[in-house]
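just leaving the lab so this will be short. what follows is a protein written twice so to speak, once as letters and once as structure tokens for the fold. can you read through it and tell me how you think this chain folds. anything you notice is useful, everything is just below:
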Amino acid sequence: MNYSELMDKVEGFDENELNNFVSKVKDWALMHGIGMRSKNNFDENSLVVAPFTLFPSPIAKDCFNRAIRAQTLLNKLLHRLAYDPQFLDYALASVLEHDEFTRKLYEIYTEIRKTEPAQRISCGLFRCDYFLHSDGSLKQVEMNTISSSMSGLIHSLGYAHRYVIKQLGMDQHLNHIPVNLALSQLCQGLIEAWKLYSVKRAVIMFVVEDVTYNICDQRFMEFETQNLNSDVRIIRRSFNQLLEQAKLGENMELLVGKDEVAVIYYRWGYDPSHHTDETWSLRLMMEKSKAIKCPSIQYHLVGAKKVQQVLCFPGILEKYISNKEEVEMIRDLFVDIYPLDESPEGEEGYKLAMTQFNRFVLKPQREGGGNNIYGDDIPKHLRSISRKDAAAFILMGLIEPVPCKNILVKQDYVGKGDVVSELGIYGIIVGNENEIFVNEEAGHMLRSKLVSSREGGVAAGDGLLDSPYIV
């Protein structure tokens, strides 16, 4: 069965037929929660359709399965790294002087290590992202350890793509779209952390922005969590609200108004622009509390791009994973990544960045999309900062994914184009320095972008929600 049959089906549509068909699909999408609040014309009572592809995009079965198999290994690896202070000290040392955001996080980490922790358990809802390289291999883009979003929207989009295929009378393609339980599994991860807190009246708190645009995705997680366990209560608070309402109790419990917080789930706080001096103090207070953090400060730090680069050094993986086959499975996912500090490896990376910049992408330490630098902008940027400040970045080999044709659907645009797709695999881990209570692969997401686009964040407006079509 050929994936191209789907595109061939609509190639026969004239412009009016295509627009009518897409209009119906957009209505279906909005009625099933594939929406966001408009950033250009905000109204909390209205939604616009989230950008998506009309069809699922092809993903090789072998690569899809490899990514799934690797996730629990990567969960365990990140957990072990996060609970090894010597590793974090070593891995982040060269960026702390030059990256203020990472330094602020690290200062919190340093402060909480001075006393016996009120809470030893961490909760991680991770997502590891990949491109399928032009040589057929699966290559890792990044490991996200905070605010790994879109499971709610992706859950609905899989059903939207099934609706499209049925409307075209091509039901024989339906079994190429894999079942995706990311939403319910990630919510179950929060519930497991809540259970470990062992105070039934305590709440799960979503930390959110002052104005939420990606509201459907966040609310899907809230509502599904309560659907899975009706004993769970959830509150939503912004940093500004918490500055007024949050305090520590006598036993280091986090109190927000009249509520004791069992689990703090961060959907905000992953970018420097999210913080002020006051919110950094708030973050420290919450980190000191008895609440289980998702993520804890050490989980947040282990998601830094510098950690991804250090893992490429010989012998690092072997220190944390004893099985040689598992080490090779993970190492095969990596592309070449260079530091840009003043070490010998960093000098080599800096030279490559200045002379072979089209082979690489320059990345800072933070999450959130829109921060990467490409092509001849790499040497331009490095010349604009001091040689020492280059240590705040890593230089990552540019992955060359294979494009496919699809139809792009946005609020005010429908068009055909060549897209490339990024596969994300979610993972759940809950544990402390001595024991892992939960370690699971937790579904997938796909987001696509035009070949000409350098970024792919859906919430940032660059990417499109997508589903894998397994070939």
Observations:
- The chain is about 40% helix and 25% strand.
- The radius of gyration is 22 Å.
- The chain has a mean pLDDT of 94.
